[in-house]
Amino acid sequence: xxxxxxxxxxxxxxxxxxxxxxxxxxxxxxxxxxxxxxxxxxxxxxxxxxxxxxxxxxxxxxxxxxxxxxxxxxxxxxxxxxxxxxxxxxxxxxxxxxxxxxxxxxxxxxxxx
Amino acid sequence: xxxxxxxxxxxxxxxxxxxxxxxxxxxxxxxxxxxxxxxxxxxxxxxxxxxxxxxxxxxxxxxxxxxxxxxxxxxxxxxxxxxxxxxxxxxxxxxxxxxxxxxxxxxxxxx
Lengths: 113, 111
Fold this sequence. Notes:
The structure holds two protein chains of two kinds.
Chain A: E1 5-7, E2 10-13, E3 19-24, E4 31-38, E5 42-50, E6 53-56, E7 65-71, E8 74-79, E9 88-96, E10 99-104, E11 108-112
Parallel strand pairs in A: 2-11
Antiparallel strand pairs in A: 1-3, 3-8, 4-5, 4-9, 5-6, 7-8, 9-10, 9-11
Chain B: E1 4-7, E2 10-14, E3 19-25, E4 32-38, E5 44-51, E6 56-59, E7 62-67, E8 72-77, E9 86-94, E10 98-101, E11 105-110
Parallel strand pairs in B: 2-11
Antiparallel strand pairs in B: 1-3, 3-8, 4-5, 4-9, 6-7, 7-8, 9-10, 9-11
């Protein structure tokens, strides 16, 4: 049963600390998306990769967020330094180019105190 | 900028009822529309994807319709069950496979 996996599932950290979230897309998928979900804003797209290349990261605060795909089986989202307003659930999704369906991971719940 | 609205924000109905969830979007230049289910503390599960050339899609007790010209979609759930309780999200798919989500409808089915 192919699934998107995300680690860690929960993270509590203090303001100013670095946070790294990891995503393993479904094997063979060549698009990866990072979303953030909050009560106020709902689900928002942060970044989008196609064949490991970043295509769109316009939804991401550039000064503190960065997203990379070091290889086809790993995507990372890093926040440095973290702030309380970054508290949210971060989802990773993967799919195939030209196929519109996206498959979501279980999310990383981040709490910044 | 595309905006997606879902009404109602919350809905509570007795088991067995048929119900309709609504989704509207401001820009009709979409590729597709997708309905998701989200259980508390979990990720999103895709329910139905309607391509822009289609009018509806069906899966079991679920039927989703799409009217691009009016910027609306509905998700019809027949014979609701307590296991259908979840938050239902609609998302329009625009260029480069980008999803724009509504805020969701929290559905509770009472036994």
